[in-house]
Amino acid sequence: DRATPLGHPAVAGAVTTVKSKEEVPALLKKLKSDDANDRVWAAASSSNLLMSEDPAVRRLLLANNVVSELIERMTDSVPDVILQVTGALHKLVAIDQGAAEEVSRKNIFGAIQALIPRLAMSIDGIIKNSDDGAKLTVDERNIVFQTTDNLISILWVLCETVPWSLKQINNMALIPFLISFFKVIGKLPASLVQTAGQFLYTLTDANIHAQHTLLGHPGATQTLFALVNTQHGIDEVSADDLTIVRILAGGVLANIKPAALSQLEKTYKGHADGTPEAEVKPWDDLSRALLQVISSFIQFDVDAAAETAAAAVKSVIAAHAESEANGAEPP
To answer: What are 273-284's pLDDT values in tens digits?
Structure first.
């Protein structure tokens, strides 16, 4: 569910409804308060109201320029404010096509691009347990992960729903950032790695620019092929979560396969022996390898369902036998 990828911590006292339209400007004004707690509260309240079942409430916030106010707060110095703001924007673009277009027009891309290096540095510190990473509390680490998930999810939604935003997304040079998540599975929340994989899959679908960028990134295809073909588990990652990541890696490779083969053909054009088999074989084997991964995932579910059904049948048979033994009508 792209609307709530990792879940966001509740903010005490955040409002979920407004009784009059006069309350909205006052609420949004608190986004600029000197008090960080006020800014967190205002962002969380905005998020709640944007998800209101009453569309009139969302229209009221949009009429009061909530999009610009939230994007502006993405430069906040307090990580929890940024978390709540990006969560609100993610929810908004996921449920409102018109709002997604407005978010794109108001250049959220620049704000996201400014945040990504900071988040990438924090994630790197957490993974390597550097001095900066080690001093972060569990809550602070979760804020980094959740904010990153929000940013990736916003771009993913815009990529799918606002076609003209694709050029700006391409220009953000996100491929190295997205590929990096596939290299550290087990050290980050599985849902964050999956969000990065889902966005990369969408980004490389019929997008020649992204396909060639990925092919040109050192080690990218090798990382993805290694995941698809792995026969081993990864510590701290469930079998289901790993299989989903492997399927996403295979899906990305399937997206770029035509471009990869075309590139190989051009590279070895004129060579007496043509394209070396070792270069082509991984691509030729991709469909079979991906099908095996998908089949194992489906089979796992089928087996679990079969066990449940068998247990139910045994229960019915036992109840039937007991009823007959007692001389009662069987159920």
So the answer is: 888 999 999 999
- The residue length of the chain stands at 331
Q: How confident is the model at residue 250 (pLDDT cuts 50, 70, 90)?
A: very high
pLDDT, one tens digit per residue, over 290-307 is: 999 988 777 655 456 556
Residue 285: how many CB atoms within 10 A of its CB?
13
Question: For residue 187, with 0-12 CB atoms within 10 Å meaning exposed, 13-18 middle and 19 or more buried, which class applies?
Answer: middle
